[in-house]
Design a protein that fits this description.
It contains 4 helices and 4 strands, in the order ββββαααα. By secondary structure, it is mainly alpha-helical.
Length: 146
């Protein structure tokens, strides 16, 4: 018996939790061009995924949660904030090929950044400069604090 195609219900990440949008509606994201017989997740032709359509209340709740997180972020030391941003840059860089491929598939770009196996996105030089700048700043801060 064949499986029934079921697409996942997309959720919004707010305050460390995945929550459903109040509207329950979604924006379907489809491939720009589809070949005959090409199907995406759940067996729908050309469907890449669904993005939740949030309401004003969802947005207001997300802004309130982000505003509550501000004081905690401000209390962190500059060194710790630098570590967090540095790690974020590492995570983005490690998935740059995947992100570039997703942009190509969705039609946001005409050609990939390079060969998929060893490609680096155009954001990689920016991330590398930011990481090296953070490293230089961090080493100066640690040496002056000692």
């Amino acid at each position: 018996m064949p499986r029934i195609p079921v697409t996942k219900t997309p959720k919004v990440y707010v305050g460390g939790q995945f929550i459903r949008s109040e509207s329950g509606r979604v924006f379907p994201i489809r491939k720009r061009t589809t070949r005959k017989g090409d199907s995406g997740p759940g067996g729908h032709p050309g469907l890449l995924g669904n993005i939740p359509q949030c309401t004003r209340k969802d947005l207001r709740n997300a802004v309130e949660v982000a505003a509550k997180a501000g004081p905690d972020w401000a209390q962190r030391t500059p060194y710790n904030r630098g570590q967090i941003i540095y790690r974020l840059g590492e995570m983005l860089e490690s998935r740059s090929a995947e992100m570039a491929e997703s942009l190509v598939i969705s039609g946001a770009s005409i050609t990939p950044a390079g060969p998929t196996s060893t490609s680096r996105s155009s954001a990689t030089p920016i991330l590398s400069r930011a990481r090296s700048s953070t490293s230089r700043w961090r080493s100066r801060w640690v040496s002056s604090a000692s």
